[in-house]
Amino acid sequence: MSNLSELSIQLRKLQSTNTSQIAEIDRLNRQLKILSDLQNVSLNDIKDALRAACEGEAHEELRAEVGRLKAQLDCFQASGPRGDTKSSGVKTLTEFDAEAASRARTNLELRVGELEELEGTLRQELASVYAKARELTARNTTLETQQAQQQNVIDDWERRWVEREQEEIRKGGIVARPSEASVGSYNYSEFATEVKGNGLQPTLLLRNESQSTHEMQQRLLAAETALDGERQQNDLLKQQVESSQKSYDLKLEQNEHRMQFLEGQIADLEQQLSSLYAAFEFVQQERVEERDQKFVNARWLKRNLLESDAALAHEAEEKERLSLSSCPVSADSGSYSLPSYNITNPFESPKQAARPSQFVRAAVAPPSNTSAIAQGYLLLALSGQDGPKLKSSTSPFSPHKLLSKSKLSSKSMSSQPSQSVPKFKRQYCVLHGSNGLYQLRYGNALLDHIAGVHEFITTNVSSVEHTSRSSSRNYGFEILINREDPQSPSLCCAAENEEDFMMWMTALTSVIDGSHVEHVPPREAFHGAA
C-alpha cells in the first residue's frame, strides 16, 4: 500500500507539472507566433528545430537507459557464475528480475499515463477550438446576412433616388423658363404652372432631398464601417483558429515522435527481459542437472554402503559360525550359548562386548561418532505392532543382518496403507545421518531396544507433508521417502506439543531441502547408517 500511495503522489505531481508545462508551451507558442510574424521567420523552420531538439533529447534518454540496462546485465553476468547453488540464489535472481520488471513497468505506466493525460488535454483544447470556430462561423453567417440585407436596402434607396432624380429632370424639362424665347411662333408659356411664393418651393424640396440623401449616405457609410470591422474580427478569429490548428498539429507530431520512441524502448525492454528469462532458464537447467548429479552420486554412495554392509554381515556370519562351532551345547536348553556383540562394531570379542543396556544404546541411540540431528518422543502410527525387536535365536545370525531385517520389516510395515484410523504409539525417535542420506530410529526409550528404522530419507527426494492419515491427530505429519512415487514407504507421526512439533519440522525440513550441512567421512557415515 505504501508503494501505491507513493506512486499516486508522484502521479499527482507529474500531472501538476504536466499542466504547468502545457500552459508554458502555449505561452511559448504564442510568443513564437508573434516573433515569427515580426521577424518574418517561417513556422516550418521552427517546427523542424523543435523536432530536432526533441529527437536529440530522446536520443540522450535512450543512451542513458541503454547504459543503465547494460550495467544491470553486466552485474547479473558477474554475479551469476558466483551465485550460490542453493535455493537462495534462485530467489535472489527471481527478486532481481521481478524488481527490474516492476520498475520498468511502473516507469512505462507513468509515461503512458502522462501521454494519455496530454492527449486528453489536447483533445479538449481542439474541441474548444472547434466550438469557437463554429460560433465564429455562425456569427460570420449572421453578419453576412445582415450585410446582404443592408446592401439590398441601400440598393433600393439608390434605385428610388435615381428614379426620383429622373422624374424631377423629366418634370423640369417640360416647364419652359421665362427668360428663354419660344422657338416657334406659338407661345407655350400658357401651359406653365404658376409658382406661388416667388419660386421658393422647388428649392426647398431639393434641399430636403439632398439632406435625406446625405443622411442615407452617412448611415450607409456607418454600416460599411461596421461591416469592415466585423470582417476584420472574422479574419482575426480565422487566424487564431489556424494558429491553434498549427500548434495542435505540432503537439500531435511531437506526441507521435514520443510514442514511437517509447514503443522502441518497450520493444528493447521486452527483448532484454526475454534474454534475462532465457539466461534464468539456462541457470535453472544447470542447477537441475547438478542436483540430478548429486542424487546419482548419493544413490551410488548408498549402493556402496549397502554392499559394504552385506560384506561385513557375511564376514560377521562366518566368524559367528566359527565361534558357535567351538561353543558347547547345553543339555538343559538344547541351544547354543551365544555371545552378545555390540551392534556398532561386529568385530569386537566377547570380552569387549557391552552389557545388554549398552547393546540397546548402540542400537537405538546414534553411534558415538555421529551426532543426532533431532531426538525426542513422537507418536508413531505402527498399525498396532511394536515393530521388530532384537533378540537371540538358536540359528546363526549377525547384528547387521538382524538390523537389516528390522529395517525391511519397518519399511514394509510403513508402506502398507491403513484402511482404518491408525493407532499411534509413543516412541523415542532419533534422526541422524549425513551426505544427503538420513534415517529415523525409534524405540520405547533411548536406552531401550530398537523397534524399527525409517531409512533412506534423501535430500531433495523425500518430503514432509500433512496427509489424511496425519490429520487424525494434532501436530501430525507424514514422512514420505519419495514424494513422486505414491507407492514409496512413509511413516505417519505426531508430536505431543507445539514445541516438539516445531523442533521436528525444523530438523526434517533442514535435512530434506539440503540446508543442514554436516561434513562426515564416508566410513563414519557407513557406521552411522549401520
UniProtKB/TrEMBL annotation:
Q: Known Pfam families for this protein?
A: PH (PF00169)
- InterPro entries, alphabetized: PH-like_dom_sf, PH_domain
Which parts of the sequence belong to the PH domain? 401-513
User: In the UniProt record, does the keyword Cell wall biogenesis/degradation occur?
Assistant: no
- Note the coiled coil stretches, chain numbering: 59-160, 220-286
Region feature Disordered, mapped onto this chain: 390-420
This chain's protein is named PH domain-containing protein
Q: What is the native source organism of this protein?
A: Cyclotella atomus
